[in-house]
Sequence to fold (409 residues):
Amino acid sequence: MLSKEIRSHFPILNQEINGYPLVYLDSGATSQKPVQVIEAIKKYYEFENSNVHRGVHTLGNRATESYEGAREKVRKFINARSTQEVIFTRGTTTSLNTVAQSYGRANVKEGDEIVITHMEHHSNIIPWQQLAKETGATLKYIDLEEDGTLSLDQVRSTITDKTKIVSIVYVSNVLGTMNPIKEITQIAHEHGAIMVVDGAQAAPHLKLDVQNLDCDFLAFSGHKMCGPTGIGVLYGKKELLEVMEPIEFGGEMIDFVGLYESTWKELPWKFEGGTPIIAGAIGLAAAIDFLEEIGLDEIEKHEHELAALAMEKMSTIEGLSIYGPVDPSKRAGIVTFNLNDVHPHDVATVLDMNGIAVRAGHHCAQPLMKWLQCTATARASFYLYNTEEDIDRLVAGLRTAKEYFNDVF
Ligand code: 7TS
Fold:
């Protein structure tokens, strides 16, 4: 387990909610921010605030250096070959929509196939549904195994030579399942398809290496990895990005503008129309520094340990069912559950009365809820600041909830 001292970097955790010390178990929705990130954003606004890429005055140069420095930090973080492959976006949702609209419209036609899975977040479903509708392509789903994992046999039998795009979540935000992205990428490539990875729940928790995965695109959000909201990343292979059209047009992304024709800047700026999210990128860079100092491998290990402990302790509560892989080594720090027939919103409300924050609902994964044959679940998601005591508080809170709703058992 990581040292409890990590918590002291997160000012928000040091407070009481409804009379109890806060236990924050909703990092899957958004993580808390360490003081290092808050300070980096403050410093930017206090000493550097200016627009970027306009290169005349000193503040403008400082802001540009920090913004482009953040891009280099992201490049190293995911091991991309070049900063030209790192595009700043608003988040995972925008990154995935960019691929669907730009690459998709240019490369997918009637009769082609787009392949996703039943465990996708809505942000990795709807852009492809829309693309399929526009182009006449078919959207296909890879079936899940009973324990909520993907089998490579199912992957092989779903991807065909008609498949143009495969887009799969690295770590499920509901089941916690960690998918074999490298192997799936290889299968996609054998059929001439490109591989898109939804890395929203992976980037915060495990070491990413786009060259090793060989994926064509990777999308993730800053706010789930200790960074601020409003900043995200789209990684794409340079040879693909180079021939893709931007989807947002206007200031910043142009080279030359005529009355009837215009040309675009080179990569990555042609995809960053308008004043960019400067403070967001700087905050994200500070978050990467913070995570790397602790070590992504250590963070991943910590979460596996917490998930294993939570599953062990929660399974002692009669009537509580946990979804997703039984083997904790196959999942990240996410434990999704239901307590008999009690609605998860009611469970979450009782937990909140005890100072414990969990998410309840469909987790933006309605097709997965259908697959699980339920309408909603509760979810505890862990991060580097969570401790064994947090799990004990969760288990005690669940026992309280169970007593509270005793009459339904
Ligand atoms: N993909 C996955 C796997 C996610 O978990 C999320 C957000 C997204 C995409 C979208 O990210 P955004 O930053 O563009 O919004 N997931 C959640 C969640 O599980 N609870 O709240 C948001």
